[in-house]
Amino acid sequence: MKQVKGMLLGFLVLVSAVVQAELKVGVLDVQRVILTVEEGKQARQKLEKLVRDKEEEFKKQREQLKKQIQELDSPASLLSKEARMEKEKELEKKKYDLMSAQGQFQEQVKGQEMQATQKIAITASKLSHEIAKKENFDFIFEAGSSGLIYAKNPVDITPRVISAYKPQDLTPPAGPGAGTTAGVAAGPGATAKK
Asked: Which 3 state secondary structure label does DSSP give 174?
C-alpha cells in the first residue's frame, strides 16, 4: 500500500511539473509558403497562362457555336424540317462536347495545381521539422487545417520556412509520416528525418 501511495505521489509530482512547464508551440502557414516561394509563384503563373490560353480557345468555340445557332434560327435558313432537326442535333452535340471539354480542363488544372502545391507543402513540412528540432519546439501545427483553435503565445515559423526554402528542397523527406503537413509534431517522441 505504501508503494502504491509513493508511486502515485511521484506520478502526481511529475504531472504537476509537466503541466507547469511552458510548452513551445509553433504554427506554420503552408498556404502562405506556397504563395510566397518562387516555385509557387512560377507554378501559379504557368497555370494562369494555361487557363487564359484555354479560355480564349473555349471563347472562340462558344462564339462559333453561337453564330451557327443564329444562322440556323434565321429566317433565311432554307433547310428542310429533317435537315433542320439534324443540324439542331449536331449543334447540341457540339454544345455538350464543349461543356464536357471545359469540365475536363478544370479537373486537369486542379490536378496540376494540387501536384505543384503538394511538393511545396512536403518541403515546408521537412523544413518545419528541422526548425523544430533546432529550436526545441514541442509542437508545430499547420495553421488552418490542424484543428488548433488556440495556443498561448504560438511562434509563427512561416517566415523562417520561407527564407530556408530552396528549389533543391523539393525532394520529399524520408521516413514514416515525414511528408505530412497537418499537425506536425516535434519534440520528445517525434520522428523527423533529415
From this structure: coil
Domains and CATH numbers, the chain: 19-170 (3.30.910.20)
pTM: 0.62
Q: In angstroms, what CA-CA distances link 3 with 11, 16, 83? A: 12, 20, 98
Residues 37, 77: Cα–Cα separation, whole Å? 58
Burial string for 61-97 (b: 16+ CB within 10 Å, else e) reads beeeeeeebeeeeeeeeeeeeeeeeebeeebeeebee
Spatial separation of the C-alpha atoms in residues 120 and 111, rounded to whole Å = 15
* Each residue's pLDDT tens digit, 134-145: 999 998 988 877
pLDDT of residue 12: 43
Q: Are 10 and 139 in contact (CB under 8 A)?
A: no
Dist CA 24 CA 139 (whole Å) = 7
Alpha-carbon distance of 127 to 56, in angstroms, equals 40
